[in-house]
Known about the structure:
mainly beta; seven-stranded mixed sheet
Amino acid sequence: VQLQASGGGSVQTGASLRLSCAxxxxxxxxxxxxxxxxxxxxxxxxxxxxxxxxxxxxxADSAKGRFTISRDSAKNTVELQLNSLKPEDTAIYYCAATxxxxxxxxxxxxxxxxxxxxxxxxxx
Length: 124
């Protein structure tokens, strides 16, 4: 399954970005979709995830209150709205998907499909 992440960029502290994860060819039906990020020199970490129905979402503590994950069924994408960005949010952001999950996995081994990543850089 091919996932395409887009929407990254270079912004200043306090700015916003909207990341988008698209799946080529097929819908996200019955998939849990999540965003992870990897900062330079650090391990990849879970940011936010959403179930197919959109009824269940999970956020890392660092994302709560600032980031919002959502589905756009019409565009067949999963979006991650990043608000109040901080320099420590600088990382490559990856979207990931897995089919048939009961909940939203928060570890990367819980996902089978990955996108190529999009760079987010926040300067002070």
